[in-house]
Amino acid sequence: MKKLFIPLLLILSLPVFSQVSVGAPITETNRWTFGGGIGLGFGSNSSFSLQAAPRVGYMVTNDLEAGVIGSISWQTSDFYRSTMFGVGPFVNYYFARSFYLGGNFQHYFIDYKDKYYGYKDNRQESALYLGGGYMQRIGGNSFMQLGLMYNVLYKERSSIFSSGLVPNIGFVIGL
């Protein structure tokens, strides 16, 4: 089920991004927001990672946005391979049209394989990120968000994550 849901989510999110006009002004009848972030990483031991995090929100008020965010991450190296899928709600409060405070809850499904020892692990983990950041207008009703979040559910010994602190860069259309 999970293997079908991830590609389906990506396929359905592509038309959403392609139909949004970057320079269109927001109107009272259009309170929907779209955006997300993507990531690409390279490292030692032939490590490579690719991430995508699409989001859809609704402006409840002029300063309060709520919605759903998803994430998918694929990582590989000479020693391991992992796939991670997450989904959950988010809320952002915007002030002075340049800053935001936010939180999002993600429930992750992780598939991990150690290439050297043959160890496999399928597990789940939840994260509650709280934080905020700065927004830079990039045109019309489109913004780039630069922020810092902290996973308040992070436990050093049992988490799959290396830290509870997460820097983020994303884009939002429709604010």
UniProtKB/TrEMBL annotation:
The stretch of residues making up the signal peptide is: 1-18
Has the keyword Signal been applied to this entry? yes
Which keywords appear in this protein's UniProt record, sorted alphabetically? Signal
Q: Please report the name of this protein according to its UniProt entry.
A: Outer membrane protein beta-barrel domain-containing protein
Naturally occurring in which organism (per UniProt): Chryseobacterium piperi
Q: What is the lineage of its organism?
A: Bacteria, Pseudomonadati, Bacteroidota, Flavobacteriia, Flavobacteriales
